[in-house]
Amino acid sequence: MRLLSITALGAALVTAGLVAPAAGEATASASKHVTVAPKVAQPGQRVELRVPGCAVGAQRHWASSPAFAGNVTLGGMADFGTGVATLKKDVRPGSYTVTAHCGPRTVTGKVKVSTRRSWPTLLPTPLNPEANRTAP
């Protein structure tokens, strides 16, 4: 019976972990601000912009940031304006404002620039279990 309880608890935790990112994504897309993916990027990397309520219209829709190599034209996709920006190769690490101009309306967001890669910290160290063994 105890094994069944532990199994049920584990399944519930895994399910909650799988649902959480989807719920977070829905919340982010419902915001009134510019969203940038990935949230943390490196110099020279391309980032995707998504701006709610900024679909194509009579006036040009565009976004800019001190971190971008140039201005980005936003194209319409349903009720969202989307675009791809390239970060400057020499941009310094930090947080930069992204400003989207949607006709008469202006909205902002943030892009964070880092020169460090974040994924290696997620991996166990060392990856090879043989590395933990000592020689006889």
Integer tally of domains: 2
CATH class of the largest domain: Mainly Beta
Strand content: 25-35%
pLDDT averaged residue by residue: 74
Structural write-up:
The structure is a single chain. With 136 residues, the chain is of the alpha+beta class. It folds into 2 domains: 1-30; 32-117, Macroglobulin (MG2) domain (Immunoglobulin-like). The protein contains 1 helix and 9 strands. It has one helix at 2-29, and strands spanning 35-37, 40-41, 46-52, 61-64, 72-73, 75-77, 80-86, 94-102, 105-113. It has a 5-stranded mixed β-sheet with strand order 2-9-8-4-5, with no helix packed on it. A hairpin with a 2-residue loop joins strand 8 and strand 9.
From the structure above, extract its key features.
34% strand, single chain, alpha+beta, Immunoglobulin-like, 136 residues, four-stranded antiparallel sheet
Short account of what is shown:
With about 140 residues, the protein is an alpha+beta fold.
Q: What's the topology here?
A:
Blueprint lengths: L1 H28 L5 E3 L2 E2 L4 E7 L8 E4 L7 E2 L1 E3 L2 E7 L7 E9 L2 E9 L23
